Amino acid sequence: MTNSLKLGTIVAGVMLLLATTAAAYAPTAAASQFGRNLVRNGNAEANTGAASSTQIVRPADWRTTGQFTAVQYGIPGGFPNETSPGPPNRGKNDFEGGNAPRSTATQSISLLESAAAIRLGVCRYTFSAWLGGWENQNDHATATVTFLNAHGDGVGSVILGPVTPQERHDVTGLLYRSQSGVVPKDATRADITIVITRYEGTYNDGSADNISLVLMHGK
After folding, report:
1. In whole angstroms, what is the distance from residue 86 CA to residue 78 CA?
2. Of these four, 40, 80, 89, 102, which has the most CB atoms within 10 Å of its CB?
3. What is the rounded CA–CA span in Å between residue 25 and residue 30?
4. pLDDT of 156 higher than 70
5. Contact yes or no for 52/217 (Cβ under 8 A)
């Protein structure tokens, strides 16, 4: 075999190895984050929720302030129940604000597994939540996703809510809100923040449930 033939065989082998490796690993890493909710415990179901307005249950996977709590649907005191407007798959609990004027919950989600698609501008997202409050009071909840780059700088954000008493027709319950878009090309992390704010009364009656961030491949 001549040297040129040997070299050609080696080059062809290397190219085949690189192509096989790229096909095997690159799509798998990106696809692992596609099509599923990346928010951990976004439905408040990881704990047994509070059974009274004085009990505080700090939900797993969230960094909280104030008296942010998971609460069981239908407990006494005017909380949303199984028949109130809200998510059809509501489970047993939602998030409430406790006896504090402002309660928050935050978590961070790494987007590094989807970095290739994000840099190419072909990674879309849908951010959604069920948000609401109590009867005609203005207590409410908002949900925000903030995209950050490798330096921790914000490169884009979306806020959902608040849902007003007028939108709820002065009925206790939660309404669905969502926004979609393209993940900013230099995003490496997404921070999810829920803020529940009290305007009236003693209990912070803003409500939130089924917080979701889903990535999809496509322009």
Report:
1. 15
2. 80
3. 9
4. yes
5. no
